[in-house]
């Protein structure tokens, strides 16, 4: 099922752009203009996002390693529970993106304490003047308490190994690139489109569909092996 999980994570990142506009819009705006009002070159935006995705991969590796402890201990019911939990979280995430609930904000509030520690370090890196500084700023950006990121991390926890968890979060991070790079380069043109109700509903329901399909795959596998 790892191929399905990677695809789901990739598309969750891509379709989650409706959430990224609100969550990361201010940070992207800070990155999109220099002190003199000019736009930074494209390679700077790539560096920001390289740092951000690197943080996601680290989170995924740590979550996957934690999940692997259950695998090594042979705790099969817990592994199964983690998989089911990951699919349920994906469904709830999709409903959140579609505007039908606000449950993801629980994750965001929980991560707020960490961000309050990281934010002063992040602010010291502004304004960004070099590529290494941009990568560091992007890594700090990755610690933003984003419910979308934390939701996908549940799937990384269920991945069963540090490598699989890192790969899953890498897939998610790559999925977010078109939206966040696009926001950095064409923020004024993209934001109105991403905030349209039908766009939010379509993206959210597709993400929820991944969770439903994951549960159906589990049910079919269980039935077939019975």
UniProtKB/TrEMBL annotation:
InterPro entries: UreH-like_TM_dom. Residues 8-213 form the Urease accessory protein UreH-like transmembrane domain. The chain crosses the membrane at residues 53-73, 80-100, 134-159, 165-186, 198-220. It holds the Pfam family DsbD_2. Keywords: Membrane, Transmembrane, Transmembrane helix. This is Membrane protein. It comes from Thiobacillus denitrificans. The lineage of its organism: Bacteria, Pseudomonadati, Pseudomonadota, Betaproteobacteria, Nitrosomonadales.
């Amino acid at each position: 099922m790892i191929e399905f999980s990677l695809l789901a994570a990739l598309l969750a990142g891509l379709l989650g752009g409706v959430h990224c506009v609100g969550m990361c819009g201010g940070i992207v705006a800070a990155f999109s203009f220099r002190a003199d009002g000019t736009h930074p070159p494209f390679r700077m935006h790539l560096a920001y996002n390289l740092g951000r995705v690197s943080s996601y991969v680290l989170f995924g590796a740590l979550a996957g390693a934690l999940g692997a402890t259950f695998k090594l201990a042979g705790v099969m019911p817990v592994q199964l529970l983690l998989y089911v939990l990951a699919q349920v979280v994906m469904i709830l995430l999709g409903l959140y993106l579609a505007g039908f609930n606000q449950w993801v904000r629980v994750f965001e509030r929980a991560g707020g304490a960490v961000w309050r520690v990281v934010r002063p370090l992040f602010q010291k890196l502004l304004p960004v003047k070099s590529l290494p500084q941009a990568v560091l700023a992007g890594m700090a950006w990755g610690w933003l308490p984003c419910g979308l990121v934390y939701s996908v991390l549940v799937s990384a926890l269920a991945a069963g190994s540090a490598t699989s968890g890192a790969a899953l979060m890498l897939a998610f991070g790559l999925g977010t690139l078109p939206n966040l790079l696009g926001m950095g380069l064409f923020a004024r043109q993209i934001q109105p489109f991403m905030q349209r109700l039908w766009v939010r509903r379509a993206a959210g329901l597709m993400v929820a569909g991944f969770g439903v399909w994951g549960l159906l795959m589990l049910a079919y596998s269980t039935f077939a092996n019975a």
